[in-house]
Amino acid sequence: MSTTLIEVRPAKAADATAVASTHDEAWRSAYQGIIPGAELEKLINRRGPQWWDSAIRKGSRVSVLVFGDKIAGYANYGRNRARSLHFDGEIYELYLRPEFQGLGFGRRLFAAARRDLMQSGLKSMVVWALSDNDPATEFYRALGGRMVARSSERFGPKSLDKVAFAWTN
Question: Which residue intervals define the domain N-acetyltransferase in the entry (predicted)?
Answer without folding.
Answer: 6-169
